[in-house]
Amino acid sequence: MPELPEVETTRRGIEPHVVNLRIKSVLVRQPSLRWPVSPELGQALSGRKLVAVKRRGKYLLFETDTGRMMVHLGMSGSLRILSALVPPEKHDHVDLIFENGQLMRYRDPRRFGSIFWLEGTAGHNLIDQLGPEPLQDEFSASYLRSRSIGRTLSVKAFIMDSRIVVGVGNIYANEALFRAGIRPDRKAGSISGPRYLRLVAVIKIILEQAIEAGGTTLKDFVREDGSAGYFKQSLAVYGRGGQPCLNCQRTLKEIRLGQRTTVYCSRCQR
């Protein structure tokens, strides 16, 4: 599933092509995604101008003066900007057709994504309870430490909880904990303030680097311009279980935490 850097890369790629364009019509070919596409989507968007493309966690928010279209890409969803003359393919489910002759096309072979219409300033239960954005000042060591007090779950599960902080998915949690020198199976409540200071700093650095690089290569993800994948990130631990640690050469251990693959170095992380 695309993680925060992939979604932010898509937002940045799509934004200059759609902001200030007026939507002529909306074509929904397949409404059955993870949840049904909001039935009022076409009526709500037709004739409206897109004024901004924002992101909350892994959700893209396409804003108009009357409400927002909230899009989640799921495991295999993508958005592309095309000429309105380009015929749809099998897995092209929704088109936003603009008055300038272009369209934004949502493709999703596995149909695990979602598209909702939020009227006015209405929220949604999928985003209302989300924690702070990891690249904003609100996400700090003092905040993380205060939320961890008394928590017995693993620190990896803790930072992957979207109610604590959004967008730290499995890949980047593995990498951040390695750079911070923290074992992923340590109890969240046992991590000291100074160590959380280091962890918050490396989370921000890793996510910023990933966004600049275009995200992590994912098998089923298609960039908004139609080319396959993202620029490959240099990953120190994720996907390298059983290989030598890049720091000390000890064999990296691979375990399961919360049903997610977790790789760490027993010497460099404590």
Count of spatially separate domains: 2
Runs with pLDDT <50, length 5+? 217-231
CATH homologous superfamily caption of the largest domain: MutM-like, N-terminal
Indicate the overall shape: elongated
Radius of gyration, CA atoms, in whole angstroms: 20 Å
What class would the helix/strand composition place it in?
A: alpha+beta
Strand content: 15-25%
CATH class group of the largest domain: Alpha Beta
Distance between the termini: 29 Å
Q: SSE order, as H and E?
A: HEHEEEEEEEHHHHHEE
Query: Helical residue percent?
Result: 25-40%
Q: What is the makeup of the main sheet? A: 4 strands, antiparallel
What's the total helix number? 7
The total of beta strands comes to 10
Average pLDDT rating = 91
CATH architectural grouping of the largest domain = Alpha-Beta Barrel
- What is the fold named in CATH at topology level of the largest domain? N-terminal domain of MutM-like DNA repair proteins
Strand adjacency order, main sheet: 1-6-7-5
